[in-house]
Each structure stands twice: as structure tokens, then as C-alpha cells.
DNA sequence: CGATTTGTTATAATATATATAGAACAGAAT
DNA sequence: ATTCTGTTCTATATATATTATAACAAATCG
């Protein structure tokens, strides 16, 4: 996997990891059922600490995006278990809310926002 | 202004403030040109520290949403100065990106996401 | 003008979050 | 049986968040 970590960013490393793994899944570079690298090897690749990768994996598990098999590893959730739970939908809505609000305030209309989203969807798929 | 601060939240207080003020502007409860409460009185109302409110105001200024008049106060930016700068648009896009990615991963389609956004726009306006 | 209010600045203290390091352990994989 | 896995623990360093005071100069108001 080809991902870029910026230690200087205001976004914590473990979050950068989480987001880029999610983008990797969205774009199909990571397929459902596929195993993620071990926390140790991944950490070595990225030049970060093992625990930082581990934290990201557990955040992904909390989001219901990966399944962690104890003492074994992390696996991208399959489409069966990846079912857009009410909780997950609510989470995305909660994330989207401040973004939409700020967009509206700086003068974006419904069409602008829809267009921006469409652009991102194409860019991520 | 009627806003709810949750000190226990994982979202920092100053960010909660920032987001809710933005929502207040989006919904018209706060009008362009209107002055925000003084950092002291607002802090007293909310039961938080003066500096926490001050931090939120400066974050809003950085976003180009309010204008800070030195030694005087913070004012909601007018529609003239609130012009959807390229920088601001890029910022919103950067905020939107991980949200869309996560939405796609949990199985939401373009229509689902558009619908969710539409719902939020109505809810915020 | 005089008093109050304003943001600003500085210092300090505390708590939490982030990140790294090293070690040890028990279960899984080979 | 050996290696690899996540897990757990201790420890440390840094950054962020929040509160608490205090003081100051500029703006505001009576």
C-alpha cells in the first residue's frame, strides 16, 4: 500500500493512517476480506511506532470497518458485515454536519455542495 | 444564543463552540454584521474559561467567518467579505473528503450521500 | 473626563492526548 | 519448535486543552 504520513501535520498520525486506509478501501486498493499488514511490519514501513498503527486499527474496528482477530491480525470487513448500520450512518451524519454548516456559511449553495461531493466520490472511487 | 456545551465530549470545548456558532450563522440565528458576545460574558454564560471562548473566536477568524476588531470584539463577517475564497473552498473539500470516503466504505452510494447532505442542509437552514 | 468593558498578553498549573521506546507474554501461524 | 501475532505494561517526552490569575492598553459608555 502506498500512503503518505506527515508527522508535522496537525492531524494525529493514527488518524492519518485511519483515513488513508479508509480511502484505500473506498478506492478498491484494499478489498473486503483482505488482511492488513501486521502492526509491526506496517510501523516499520511507515517509520512510526507499533502502538500508533495498533491504535489506528482499533479505531477502524470501532468504526466497524475492519475486524480484528485476536493474536492474529486485522482484516477488512466483508460486504456482509459492512452493512451501513444505523450507528454507522449516524456517525457519518455527525461527521458531515459541521462540514455542511461551514460550507453554507462561506456561501456555498446546495448545488455547490452536491457538486463538491460528486467530485470527491469520483476522486475516491 | 442557545447552545449546548458538553465538557465530557471527545470534541474540545473550543471546537464545539466554533461549530455551533457556525451552525448559528448558517441557520440565520446569527446574522452577518452582528457582534458576538464578549469573551468574558460568553464564558460566564457557558461556564467555561475566557481563553477557551477566545480560542474559538480566533479559529473562526482563521476560517474567515468572523472579523475581530482589536480591543473591541468579534463580528460575524458580512456577505461581501464572506466570499467563498479558494482557500475556504479547499478547506471545506479537505474536511469533506474523509467523510465521503467513510460513507462509501460503509456501503453508502452517491444517492445516499447526496440525500444525507440534502437532509442536513434543510436541517441547518 | 472618568469608569467600565474590551481583547490581549503573560505566567502558571493541571489534565489529557499523542507518540515513542522497550520489554514481556500468550496465542496463532508456519 | 520457532517465528510472528496482537496484547499488555511501564516509562518518557511532547503537545494540546482547560482553567486560573493578573495586568495592560485600547475601546466604549455614561
Mind telling me which CATH architecture of the largest domain in chain A this is? Orthogonal Bundle
Report the oligomer. homodimer
Number of helices of chain A: 5
- Largest sheet, spatial ordering of strands of chain A: 1-2
**Helix-strand pattern of chain A, N to C?**
HHHEEHH
- Work out the count of structural domains of chain A: 2
CATH topology of the largest domain in chain A: Arc Repressor Mutant, subunit A
Largest sheet of chain A: 2 strands, antiparallel
Work out the number of β strands of chain A.
2
Shape of chain A: globular
Instruction: Kindly report the name of the CATH homologous superfamily of the largest domain in chain A.
Output: Winged helix-like DNA-binding domain superfamily/Winged helix DNA-binding domain
Radius of gyration of chain A (CA) equals: 16 Å
Q: Largest interface, and how many residues on either side?
A: A-B, 43 and 44 residues
N- to C-terminal distance of chain A: 16 Å
In percent, how much strand structure appears in the residues of chain A? 5-15%
InterPro entries (chains A, B): Tscrpt_reg_HTH_GntR, WH-like_DNA-bd_sf, WH_DNA-bd_sf
Keywords (chains A, B): DNA-binding, Transcription, Transcription regulation
Domain HTH gntR-type (chains A, B): 11-79
Organism (chains A, B): Viridibacillus soli
Amino acid at each position: 500500500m502506498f500512503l503518505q504520513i506527515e508527522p508535522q501535520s496537525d492531524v494525529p498520525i493514527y488518524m492519518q493512517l485511519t483515513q488513508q486506509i479508509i480511502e484505500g478501501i473506498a478506492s478498491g486498493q484494499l478489498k473486503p476480506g483482505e488482511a492488513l499488514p501486521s502492526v509491526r511490519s506496517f510501523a516499520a514501513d511507515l517509520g512510526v511506532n507499533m502502538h500508533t498503527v495498533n491504535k489506528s486499527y482499533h479505531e477502524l474496528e470501532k468504526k466497524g470497518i475492519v475486524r480484528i482477530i485476536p493474536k492474529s491480525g486485522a482484516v477488512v470487513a466483508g460486504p456482509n458485515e459492512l452493512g451501513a448500520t444505523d450507528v454507522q450512518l449516524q456517525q457519518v451524519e455527525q461527521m458531515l454536519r459541521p462540514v455542511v454548516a461551514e460550507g453554507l456559511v462561506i456561501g456555498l449553495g446546495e448545488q455547490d455542495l452536491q457538486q463538491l461531493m460528486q467530485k470527491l466520490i469520483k476522486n475516491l472511487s
